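Q: Joint fold for the lines below.
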Amino acid sequence: MPELNAHLERAFYERPTIDVARDLLGQILVSETPQGRTAGRIVETEAYRGADDPASHAARLRTGRVEAMWGEPGIAYVYRSYGIHAMLNVVTEPLGTTGAVLIRALAPLVGVDLMRIRRGLGEERLLCSGPGKLCQALAIGLDLHSTDLVTSERLWITPGASPRDVSLSGRIGISRGQDHPWRYWITGNPHVSAHRRAQSSAE
DNA sequence: ACCTGGATCTTCT
DNA sequence: GAAGATCCAGGTA
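A: Joint structure:
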């Protein structure tokens, strides 16, 4: 297993959201808790921008936790979806401008047994194959909102191998702004989310 | 105060 | 393929 302690630096996140979403594929998300370490390779992401993106929370709101989308690049924007699931985003673009990348799926790498316990499931392919699933598997909750992934020892992203092929399509689970091909995943990877539209319109 | 609409996942049939 | 779980913030009153 490679060293996972290195952190991607702020400059990586301080770029156009689209570029960060694509370049996050293959990098490794690491979560450290008293129970142990869990980590997985990022295999699926989505880009969300600002006022020009009707699907982005930042297009409608600038209150409460959404304020984080204007914040320092590299911090976590975590919110609750459907009353149940936590969603992990990484803030992009320079301070004062909006943008974030939703982490949608991981390939489990470290602490797979701990993930199984947290998820109550055995099958590895289902542990992190969706944005709510991976937050449960890595114990990422609303308490980690605003965590700085550049400096945190609780949650961070470490460099991994670049994927060979990347596919893209419209985003998932939203009603507006589907026309933009801002969902990225590693072509052929079995750990991408199992949504019906997951197979559509590759590259 | 009440209502509504979600960047989802599981468990049914 | 459909429903249920269940939180949060905005809009409307």
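Q: Anything notable?
A: Residues 46, 48, 55-57, 79, 81-85, 87, 89, 102, 104, 130-133, 136, 171-175, 193, 195 of chain A lie near DNA strand B (CB under 10 Å from a C1'). Strands of chain A lie at 28-33, 36-48, 76-81, 85-91, 100-110, 155-158, 166-169, 183-186.
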